[in-house]
Amino acid sequence: MRDCARTRERTPKDTDAKGGLHAAKHRDDARCGRSILAAWRRLDPAAYTACFTQEAELHEPYGSTPHRGTQGVRAFFSGVSEALSEVRLEPKAIYPAGNRAAVVFHGKGTGKNGKVVDVEGVDVFEFDQSGRITALWAYWDSAAVLAKLRQ
């Protein structure tokens, strides 16, 4: 599987009039988005963590204590994967801007307790030049989801 750590050489056709890497950047970001969705579907902490830089910050959900570095990101996702037996995330809209993108999503999951949860939210990603995530801010109603999973 291709993951977010994959990089490629930049060529002059990848740059815009100001020398930016917009076209190539959006291709790398899109590849990262596909990798993140695949990691969620498989509930795979290693694949999820591979999409982040070593120094990344994960604010999931926003307002909670940030998970820092790949160790923190992996610990977060490992906890999630231990509570869920299935997850499906579907992007509803994507708004790229420079080295960031906001993604409106709908998710559906099944807890290991058999409870089904639905979630709507917005994730804001910040990427480095290789398309890996340097920061992620996730906005969704964690209290409602966690309450359902704890029933």
| CATH C-level name | Alpha Beta
The quaternary structure here is single chain
- Give the count of helical stretches: 4
Radius of gyration: 16 Å
Total domain units: 1
CATH topology: Nuclear Transport Factor 2, Chain: A
Q: Which CATH architecture is right?
A: Roll
SSE arrangement, N to C = HHEEHEEEEH
Segments where pLDDT lies below 50 for 5+ residues? 5-24
In percent terms, what proportion of residues is strand? Answer: 35-45%
Topology, pairings included?
Elements (H helix, E strand, L loop, with lengths): L21 H21 L2 H5 L2 E8 L7 E2 H15 E14 L2 E12 L4 E12 L5 E8 L1 H8 L2
Parallel strand pairs: 1-6
Antiparallel strand pairs: 1-2, 3-4, 4-5, 5-6
Which terms would index this structure?
single chain; 151 residues; alpha+beta; Nuclear Transport Factor 2, Chain: A; 6-stranded mixed sheet; 32% helix
Report on the structure:
It is a single chain. This protein is of the alpha+beta class and 151 residues long. The chain has a single domain (12-149), classed as Nuclear Transport Factor 2, Chain: A (Roll). Helix content is 32%, strand content 37%. The chain is built from four helices and six strands, in the order ααββαββββα. Strands 2-1-6-5-4-3 form a six-stranded mixed sheet. The longest helix is centred in the N-terminal third of the chain and has 21 residues, at 22-42.
